[in-house]
């Protein structure tokens, strides 16, 4: 097969977004996402509702992605899908569709680690952004994961630091709930923080060995602080909302960068990237630029559409795996938890 003509269909269904993308070479021809608003009523993603919505969305989303890319099903050379990690019921829908499509079209099947996808989203063709040079460090921050990944090649990576409890995105959403925001609250904290003073309130910052993280203590610190202040003034949160959001956001991002700077210094790596849903946070993005200028880093920030869960990142990962001959067979199954390990 001429690699220059490779077209890959990708499926992402790890949580509450049903996404399909078409990739030709390293360029995205389409990347569509069907979200699920119903979860905001429950303060978080309800797995059973998520899997039912995936069943309703997956065929229309895939059909729309193929149509938008202006290709035919017969043009597709391989199909990539998210095997895990994620919600099992949601993953099963995407996995089952991918297996059926691959069998019907007699094309290779590629099972992708969702976290690899976040890192490799940086390699989607983008005339406005340079691709990272190897080796680089990628701070991957989402609702379920917080990791520093040492990326040696597209298929050779190692997690050198991760959270020992809550993920940073989880901390954002849980604290947002304490402040009275609906799910998902992280983006609302970011919105209000832009109008607040991040130096007004101070919260406890955990001390963890190595490059690992912890956010449960910070979350508890905010909880006790709010409880104490509301006893004195029941309107404390509403009267200080912008400053509270700015202070919380600063605290979380301070923690992230302490370990990232340490890893960069000790490993002598100045190519630094961010990825994952929280990489859409405006303060995280601006902090990477300012810290990068301070330490002489070459920084890499993904487009907003490649930050949250999306099939484009699964497509580019699938392309690297396809070129290496890393295909699955029909016995492959979805897994809620899978190890993060080098593929070569």
Number of helices: 10
Looking at the overall shape, the CATH architecture of the largest domain is 2-Layer Sandwich
Unreliable parts: none
* CATH-defined topology of the largest domain: Nucleotidyltransferase, domain 5
Instruction: Indicate the CATH class of the largest domain.
Output: Alpha Beta
Let me know the largest β-sheet. 5 strands, mixed
Overall shape? globular
Q: Widest sheet: strand order?
A: 3-2-1-4-5
CATH homology superfamily of the largest domain = ATPase, nucleotide binding domain
User: For the CA atoms, what is the radius of gyration?
Assistant: 20 Å
Mean pLDDT: 93
Q: How many angstroms does the end-to-end distance come to?
A: 21 Å
The beta-strand count equals 10
Could you tell me the strand content as a percent range?
15-25%
Helix content: 40-55%
Query: What is the chain-wise order of helices and strands?
Result: EEEHEHEHEEEHHHHHEHEH
Number of domains: 2
Sheet/helix structural class: alpha/beta
Secondary-structure blueprint of this entry?
Elements: E1 7-12, E2 18-24, E3 27-34, H1 47-69, E4 78-84, H2 88-105, E5 109-113, H3 114-120, E6 136-141, E7 146-153, E8 156-162, H4 168-178, H5 186-193, H6 216-232, H7 236-239, H8 241-267, E9 271-275, H9 282-295, E10 298-300, H10 311-323
Parallel strand pairs: 1-4, 4-5, 6-9, 9-10
Antiparallel strand pairs: 1-2, 2-3, 6-7, 7-8
Protein described:
This protein is of the alpha/beta class and 344 residues long. Helix 4 (168-178) packs parallel to helix 6. It is globular and about 65 Å long. It has a 5-stranded mixed beta sheet with strand order 3-2-1-4-5, with helices on both faces. Strands 8-7-6-9-10 form a 5-stranded mixed beta sheet, with helices on both faces. It has 2 domains: 3-122 and 307-323, 2-Layer Sandwich (Nucleotidyltransferase, domain 5), CATH 3.30.420; 132-302, 2-Layer Sandwich (Nucleotidyltransferase, domain 5), CATH 3.30.420. The protein has helices at residues 47-69, 88-105, 114-120, 168-178, 186-193, 216-232, 236-239, 241-267, 282-295, 311-323; strands spanning 7-12, 18-24, 27-34, 78-84, 109-113, 136-141, 146-153, 156-162, 271-275, 298-300. The protein is 41% helix and 18% strand.
């Amino acid at each position: 097969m001429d690699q220059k003509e490779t077209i890959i269909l990708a499926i992402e269904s790890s949580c509450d977004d049903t996404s399909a993308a078409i990739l030709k070479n390293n360029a995205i021809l389409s990347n569509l996402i069907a979200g699920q608003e119903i979860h905001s009523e429950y303060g978080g993603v309800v797995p059973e509702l998520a899997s039912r919505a995936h069943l309703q969305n997956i065929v229309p989303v895939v059909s729309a992605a193929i149509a938008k890319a202006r290709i035919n099903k017969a043009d597709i050379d391989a199909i990539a899908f998210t095997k895990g990690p994620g919600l099992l019921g949601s993953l099963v829908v995407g996995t089952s569709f991918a297996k059926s499509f691959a069998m019907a079209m007699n094309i290779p099947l590629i099972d992708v680690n969702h976290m690899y996808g976040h890192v490799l989203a940086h390699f989607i063709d983008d005339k406005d952004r340079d691709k990272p040079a190897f080796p680089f460090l990628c701070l991957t921050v989402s609702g379920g994961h917080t990791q520093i990944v040492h990326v040696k090649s597209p298929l050779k990576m190692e997690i050198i630091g991760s959270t020992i409890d809550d993920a940073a995105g989880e901390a954002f959403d849980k604290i947002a709930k304490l402040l009275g925001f609906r799910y998902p609250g992280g983006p609302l904290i970011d919105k209000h923080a832009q109008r607040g003073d991040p130096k007004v309130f101070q919260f406890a910052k955990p001390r963890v060995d190595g490059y690992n993280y912890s956010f449960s203590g910070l979350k508890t610190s905010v909880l006790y602080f709010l409880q104490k202040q509301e006893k004195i003034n029941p309107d404390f949160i509403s009267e200080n909302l912008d400053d509270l959001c700015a202070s919380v956001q600063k605290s979380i991002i301070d923690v992230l960068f302490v370990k990232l700077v340490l890893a960069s210094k000790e490993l002598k790596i100045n190519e630094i990237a961010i990825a994952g849903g929280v990489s859409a946070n405006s303060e995280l993005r601006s902090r990477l630029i300012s810290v990068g200028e301070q330490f002489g880093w070459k920084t890499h920030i993904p487009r907003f559409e490649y930050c949250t869960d999306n099939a484009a990142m699964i497509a580019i990962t699938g392309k690297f795996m396809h070129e290496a001959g890393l295909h699955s067979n029909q016995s492959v199954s979805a897994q809620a938890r899978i190890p993060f390990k080098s593929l070569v």
